[in-house]
Amino acid sequence: MNTLDLERMAVRDVNQRLHDDAAGTNTDQQYEILNPMGRHAIAVGLNHPFDVTVRGHAGYYCGSMNKEATVTIEGNAGVGVAENIMSGTVHVTGYASQSAAATGHGGLVVIDGDASARCGISMKGVDIVVGGSVGHMSAFMAQSGNLVVCGDAGESFGDSIYEAQLFVRGSVESLGADCVEKEMRPEHVERVRGLLERAGIDADPAAFRRYGSARQLYNFKIGNIGYY
Amino acid sequence: MDERKVRESATFPPHVIAEIQRAASEGLYYIRGSGAKRAVPTFDDLVFLGASISRYPLEGYREKCDTNVTIGTRYAKKPIELKIPITIAGMSFGALGANAKQALGHGASAMGTSTTTGDGGMTEEEREASSLLVYQYLPSRYGMEPDQLRKADAIEVVAGQGAKPGGGGMLLGQKITDRVAQMRTLPKGIDQRSACRHPDWTGPDDLEIKIQELREITDWEKPIYVKVGATRTKFDTMLAVKAGADAIVIDGMQGGTAATQTCFIEDVGIPTLPAVRQAVEALKELDMHREVQLIVSGGIRTGGDVAKALALGADAVSIGMASLMALNCNAPIYEEDYHALGTRPGSCHHCHTGKCPVGITTQDPELEKRLDPELGAQRVRNYLATLTLECQTLARACGKSHVHNLEPEDMVALTMEAAAMARVPLAGTDWIPGWS
Predict the structure, then answer these.
(1) CA distance B240 to chain A (A)
(2) Rounded CA gap, A192 and A206, in Å?
(3) Which helix (H) or strand (E) holds B228?
């Protein structure tokens, strides 16, 4: 285990070490980052299958643009955790602030607690599993991927959604423009089951409801004027 | 009929009547490409005071007049070295076809300057063609990949665009081909809308953290630009500097677009002329002029425009629409295809349709064939060379051995509006309206 202590090192040095090691020959793939103390941009831009554990609360953009690595945040995460993740996993054991997994292209993001507003905004293929609830405007303009919410969803859920799939076990305060409830078929139950297993969350996949795009706003036309 | 008695209304000229009737028929705003068609004060309203006795000119073709500029001297480990102070502005693959992107890349590379990506990410052809490539980081994040960030020579965080400050981008369904759809993770054929603001930051404090993130991902190597559409230019420039930008890109309202609502193109933003001056004032107030580089775009067409922007304090300019015109945008060829679009060469703004008669703003393979990327590259190179020569010759005429030595004192204004906006005296007077 490689230990990187942010009381002794700057964020710059920690990230440089991770980037250099990815290109180098260090055979120890395990890292722990101590004393994050809400600092921003910790463990960003990783592109190697490292196993990185941040022991404490992280600030903005922790684990952002991750490729291949597994990043675990033992605490809460600030705005934009796992932003634009490409692959690998980012796991928050606490709560996540706004825009969690924003624009993520792939990989898995797990938030054990709640996620705030705009969780999964503009998601482009990432899978997101939230143990708690998500705030308003979550999955706004969500293009692809899956968002599984074990708690409730706030207002305007899935507004202007494209082809992402949304699953909620609890209540949805309101659906956004062009987002509708859809039939939960067996293949969707299996999909949720698989995502929950990957996330390590124990919940009944059959208890979830599915939401997606009505595909009525895909082209500008006068019939949609009420939405503009 | 006595023609003398027939008078057009100034309030309702034919194009306004046509738009009212189109709106009445369709019930939706008009979406189009290109830039503002209305007249605004421009660099045309300024002239240089060539040297004579009180100033000493340099010999026009012999004496040295350098044009190089370095972008990213503030923080970046690897600043960009440009041989000329003219860059190619961000235009997406999707808005433009692959041949156009290649032509721009090769043409700019031949002149030692940079091109810029756009919405939808970086194509391999574009990277290969461009020796210096600026990667735009846009609100939509379509095609945004960290490997592309690392492959880029600089990163441009786009907070706004001159053609549509406050509005997002558009790419209509007819241009969303399989390749474009795949790059943007969107269904084919939809009318794609790009968000108007970033999904994970909302103000200047957040922007500072965003810039930190991008620097961390790229190990502080790349210059980071912040691009804004010209509106509250002084404040925006100051905030971008305070957020840690290496360079500021100010895009005036004459800047073009592939598609947006006409009301944005014509009714939002301020002209490039006052925007340059305001940005320079902001940089000077922060003691950051020349430390944070200023790149100006929006309606730059001639070497005179370049020289005037530099004289007002810009470090470089960026050209979009004019570079497309170098590739034959609006040229009088394939006229029947212009007519089929309901327009004619010189007035075409139909980039949004994907039916570009000259093969630039299209994804149609047959139309794209009309633009040979090699010939296009030569035309872009020639155009950039001409702009550079014109800029140099004007600088020499003002006695300057580097184009950056041009200064506001070298110019006067021909109109009160331009004098007030550029803050240079009205020709033949010492008067700067609103100032002296």
Answers:
(1) 19
(2) 8
(3) strand B224-229
- The chain-wide mean pLDDT, for chain A, equals 96
For residue B174, pLDDT beyond 90: no
**pLDDT at site B319:** 98
End-to-end CA distance of chain B: 53
Using the beta-carbon criterion (under 8 Å), do B146 and A19 form an inter-chain contact?
A: no
List, for residues B284-324, the tens digit of each pLDDT value. 999 999 999 999 999 999 999 999 999 999 999 999 999 99
Is beta strand B293-297 parallel, antiparallel or unpaired with respect to B247-251?
Answer: parallel
Angle made by CA atoms B263, B157, B308, in degrees to the nearest 5: 70
Residues of chain A positioned with their CB less than 8 A from the CB of B142: 124
Q: Inspect the interface and report whether the beta carbons of A122 and B209 lie closer than 8 Å.
A: no
Contact A64 B201 (CB under 8 A): no
Q: Is the CB of A44 less than 8 angstroms away from the CB of B206?
A: no
Judge contact between B292 and B245, C-beta under 8 A: yes
Pairing mode, if any, of strands B115-116 and B133-137? Answer: parallel
CA separation for the pair A60, A210 (Å, rounded): 30
Q: How many CB pairs under 8 A join A and B?
A: 112
ipTM of the complex: 0.96
Helix H or strand E segment including B321: helix B321-326
